[in-house]
Amino acid sequence: MAAERRARRARRRRFITTQVEVEGRDEVRVVEIPELDPAPWTKDADLAVVGRRVRRADAVEKVTGRACYTTDVRRSGMLHAAILRSPIAHGRLVALDLSPALRLPGVHAAISRGDIGSIELRESGLTLFDPVIRYAGQPLAALCAESRALAAAALKRIEAHFDVRPHSLTAADALAPLAPQVRERGNRVPGTPRIRERGNIRQGLSQADVVVEREYTTSVALHSALEPHAAVAEWSGEHLTVWESTQGVFGVRSDLATALNLPLSRVRVLQEHMGGGFGAKTGASTNALIAALLARRVGRPVRSVNSREEEQTDSGNRPATIQRVTIGATRAGILTAISLDAQIPLGVAGWEGGPASIYHELYACPNVRTSETFVYTHAAAMSSFRAPGHVEGAFGLERAMDVLARELGIDPLELRIRNYARRDESKGRRYSSKRLDECYRRGAERFGWGARRNTGAPGCLRGFGVASQIWGGGGGPPAYALVRINPDGSIDVLTGTQDLGTGSRTVFAQIAAESLGARVEDVRVVLGDTERTPYTGNSWGSMTVASVGPAVRAAAEDARSQLLQAAAGMLGVAVSRLETRRGVVRARRSRRTLSFGEIGARLGDVMIIGRGSRGPNPRKATLATFGVQFAEVEVDVETGVVRVVRLTAVHDSGRIINPTLAESQLEGGIIQGMGYALFEERVIDRSLGVALNPTLHDYKMPTHADVPAIDAGFLDGADPLANNLGALGVAEPPIIPTAPAIANAVADALDVEIAQLPLTPWRVLDAIGARR
Q1: Are 342 and 371 in contact (CB under 8 A)?
Q2: Does residue 404 sit within a domain?
Q3: What Cα–Cα distance (Å) separates residue 646 from each residue in 117, 416, 631, 714?
Q4: For residue 25, what pLDDT is reported?
Q5: Same domain, yes or no, for 467 and 480?
Q6: Could you tell me if 665 and 753 lie in one domain?
Q7: Are residue 479 and residue 523 in the same domain, yes or no?
Q8: Spatial CB neighbours of 275, under 8 Å, sequence gap ≥ 6
Q9: What confidence tens digit (pLDDT) does each residue in 403-456 have?
Q10: From CA 35, how far away is CA 387, in angstroms rounded?
């Protein structure tokens, strides 16, 4: 009935607007009502392929080394680019001489601002090769040569002279009177502070029996993807082809077309395999622009790949935060007020992805007020980083909740349960599905929360912590897919998304096989090519499966309908009597069958092509994922070293298409959250404004030796209101509660205040010393 109602609405209106949550912020989008929107698979749907641990479609390619990443792309006659970057944090490039580099044999071209004019960078709003220097590492010029080593050697011959000026590196620096200016309109981001409020915060605090006030700080963290930003550009006349390590091939196409003043039809972007992005690769990179500009100048393909130091210096980051938190509650542990005053230094640019949202969303509280002040500084720009804002905010909120639990003498998990939000209080509507209470129950049982004991090895103290999570992940339009049934019965799924390494090819093959009644091994997924596939958006915000998957299912259902119509005529039975299973069409109560290949052979050159698109999100419900994590840690009181002993995670993300791939996302997010909790921190020299740890040798990340026993899983079920799959996102939720769960466990072990991340040994020793 619901599908019929949607079909009737479709006949009345073809285009409507819908709300989509992207990276923690709401966007209003125009969406085309799908011609076919299958009825959602319910929780109890009898599914043969979806929900199974199907082997990765690209497993053999990856384990044999045949998978082609952007850094592997080689073109005939290809040259290699190198980028001249600023060694100072603030000032002006007053003289630049490229001729010494160009005289070096094998160097083919060099470009600077004077050669390319004003090209705006979408992510930052700055211009490429701007002579006004706003951060160390800013690109100033580029060249290309026969080899990467030669290009690097040629960079050293360029003569550059600078007018060095004072810089502002922290929020306090930038907000001080007479501070050096970062942007023309000042250091405060226009429109800040951003204030959100419900209820009356003063009244809420006056009603509280206990009020806790704390200040929490988090440091800048770097994405550190295994594959750095990389691009290869090649021109054929006025047509540009770019291979880019990106989370959005269509976004890159749009950015390049705009920057180079080309029609979209003359730009093709490809991405076959990718070694991680985590939010830092959502548009055309500086590498892609530089490769395209140099390639057009020399008439040969050009490759531009960041070195590891360049990647760690100028490819985005999770910004630092200062969070001043006030929470009030009754003696019974019922929240009466939550207040946040935050400062977020973005670097030279960035979008306002601050920590406030989770303060409004996670708990039931009638009075909530947040104020966020975003500040520009003379440092590299922030960018989206796996659950941006929520990761930082979860640390401040969940630490304060534990402090409140201690003040009240209430178990930390019990305090969270007492303030369980039954509805979305920030938007004043219900959730499409919420089972966080079941996550609490099952997680506590698996972890043994009620039986925990603070006993550790000699010289060590053991502690336990818990933290919760909320994140969107509901996906949304627009997203399109095609499904072709070939004459031999093989199947192609075409969609313009990309696989970041998470297994999109496998998941979409499972969805198509389930919908068609085909064998998953007969399905091939084609993606990552703007010329061959229909549009889908960026892979970010835990949106890919929830956005593209429903379009794939709709396209497969459309193709199946056509297939059954053809088979009905061949078998001489009504369509309603036919069913499909494992690539065979069967007539019920009959032994007559036809394989997909037999039907295709009879059809000859007539090709069955199914079309599908993603429909609108529900208007009166919030789509969200939920989860909880429990941590056990051991702290060496002499060295300050924190060892995570074990972690238990239970998450609710609707229907899980492939449990193995989804659990890998859980474990990966938890490990990345461990790094945020314990190790990862960009360090900048205050006097010079340059990074002191721009390599993976100096920027500590978790290794196998650091990873504890991880017990991570999902609740069974589906969210049929979300989309026709009942699926929500799984990539970003697991990183959100990890750091606060670990920090709460350390505070429990040491009986100290934990107020800053990461929990490096010297910070832990300082906390111990402060207690003493």
Answers
A1: yes
A2: no
A3: 55, 21, 6, 17
A4: 79
A5: no
A6: yes
A7: yes
A8: 69, 71, 225, 226, 227, 245, 501
A9: 999 999 999 999 999 999 999 999 999 999 999 999 999 999 999 999 998 777
A10: 33
Distance of CA 606 to the CA centre of its chain: 41
For position 550, which CATH number holds? Answer: 3.30.365.10
Strand duo 368-376 + 335-347: pairing? parallel
Residue 655, in any domain of the structure? yes
Element (H, E) at 84: strand 79-85
Q: Give the neighbor-by-neighbor strand order of the sheet with 321-329.
A: 194-198, 368-376, 335-347, 321-329, 210-218
Q: 691 is written with which tokens?
A: 């990074």
> 544: phi > 0 → left, psi -120 to 50 → alpha, else beta; which?
alpha
> Please, are residues 287 and 229 in contact by the beta-carbon 8 Å criterion?
yes
What pLDDT digit, counting tens, does each position of 176-223 carry?
999 999 998 889 998 779 999 999 999 999 999 999 999 999 999 999
| Containing structural domain, residue 468 | 431-472+622-772
Verify that 492 and 607 share a domain, yes or no.
yes
Residue 186 within any structural domain of the chain = no
Angle, to 10 degrees, between the axis of helix 596-603 and the axis of helix 544-571? 70
Q: How far is Cα of residue 115 from the mean position of the Cα atoms in its chain?
A: 35
Beta bridge partners of 318: 221
| Nearest one of 763, 739, 738, 761 to 753, comparing CA atoms | 763
pLDDT of 33 reads 87
Residue 25, both tokens: 């912020």
Give, to the nearest 10 degrees, the angle between helix 659-678 and helix 738-750.
50
How many domains are contained in the chain? 2
In this prediction, residue 31 has a pLDDT band, given cuts at 50, 70 and 90, of confident
Give the number of other Cβ atoms within 10 Å of residue 164's Cβ.
14
Q: 655 and 727: one domain?
A: yes
Give the CA angle between residues 353, 359, 363 to the nearest 5°: 145
Asked if 355 contacts 342 with a C-beta cutoff of 8 angstroms, the reply is yes
Looking at the fold, whether 533 and 479 belong to one and the same domain comes out as yes
CA 113 to chain centre: 32
**Does residue 612 or residue 36 have the better pLDDT?**
612
* 36-91 residue pLDDT tens: 889 999 989 999 999 999 999 999 999 999 999 999 999 999 999 999 999 999 99
Instruction: Tell me the C-alpha to C-alpha distance, in Å, between residue 247 and each of 128, 285, 286, 500, 739.
Output: 21, 11, 15, 7, 25
Task: Examine the domain organization and report whether 569 and 445 are in the same domain.
Answer: no
- Report the distance separating Cα 591 and Cα 470, nearest Å: 51
Residue 425 annotated among the catalytic residues of the structure:
no
Q: What is the pLDDT of residue 4?
A: 54
Q: In what order do the strands lie in the sheet with 709-714?
A: 460-471, 625-636, 642-652, 709-714
Establish if 91 belongs to a structural domain: no
**Which structure tokens are listed for 196?**
């959100």
Q: Which of 613, 638, 660 is the last residue of a domain?
A: 613
Q: Is residue 249 a contact partner of residue 271, using CB atoms and an 8 Å limit?
A: yes
State how far the Cα of 108 lies from the Cα of 110, in Å rounded to an integer.
7
Q: How many alpha carbons lie under 13 Å from residue 743 in its C-beta half-sphere?
A: 38
pLDDT tens digits, residue range 320-350?
999 999 999 999 999 999 999 999 999 999 9
Catalytic residue among 238, 557, 732, 753: 732
- Distance from chain centroid for Cα 635: 31
Helices (H), 128-273: 148-155, 171-175, 201-206, 249-260
**Boundary residue ending a domain (613, 636, 661):** 613
> What mean pLDDT, rounded, does the chain reach?
95
Sequence-distant (≥ 6) Cβ neighbours of residue 236 within 8 angstroms: none
The tens digit of pLDDT for each residue in 17-29 reads 888 888 877 888 8
Residue 35 has pLDDT above 90, yes or no: no
